[in-house]
Specification:
With 184 residues, the protein is mostly beta strands. Helix content is 2%, strand content 43%.
């Protein structure tokens, strides 16, 4: 007997909104498509790159200092953030809705996480094997939080944060891995 699980995003992503910036419903532009890769002045790591929120109550600020106003408070550890610039211990980040701001590096982790693409209009299929004909393990709603284990450039091996579901999902259905990016 086979069955499919539908995993909802509502339990997986929680934000406190402190700004008037909204989500337009389309994926934010990736700087990878428009900018050559560079390295961060402080870390020497590639810019842009993905990281994730490490702590509960992580503040995104308007500028790179605690003297700047808080723009957002993220209360869900593991949310993916794209680091787009560095300044001292501060990282300019972009979230999956396109909102940008600054976070202290202590609030971020190098652990790779992703969310099912928020711009999708249909659920994404989590499959047993990395192929379109692989058995469906679960249907994932947009914004479901995932741990990324590896990506082949077209498929990523993932597990659903807080659930036992694991398998493969098309890389194009994620925000947290660049198109064509390969990593183990």
């Amino acid at each position: 007997m086979t069955y499919q699980r539908k995993i909802r995003a509502g339990l997986c992503v929680t934000l406190v909104f402190l700004s008037s910036i909204g989500f337009a419903g389309t994926p934010p532009a990736s700087p990878v498509a428009t900018t050559a890769w560079k390295t961060g002045r402080q870390t020497g790591l590639p810019i842009p790159r993905f990281a994730s929120v490490k702590s509960f109550k992580a503040r995104m600020r308007v500028g790179p200092s605690t003297n700047y106003a808080t723009k957002w408070i993220y209360i869900k550890p593991g949310l993916p953030m794209e680091i787009i610039n560095e300044y001292g211990h501060w990282r300019q980040v972009r979230d999956d809705t396109g909102v940008t701001g600054w976070m202290h590096s202590a609030l971020l982790s190098g652990a790779r996480m992703a969310v099912v693409a928020p711009w999708l209009t249909k659920n994404a299929m989590l499959r047993m094997d990395p192929e379109a004909t692989g058995a469906v393990v679960a249907e994932l709603q947009p914004r479901v939080l995932l741990s990324l284990h590896s990506c082949s450039g077209s498929w990523c091996r993932v597990s659903v944060k807080g659930h036992s579901a694991r398998g493969y999902i098309r890389q194009s259905k994620l925000w947290g891995a660049y198109p064509g990016e390969i990593f183990q």
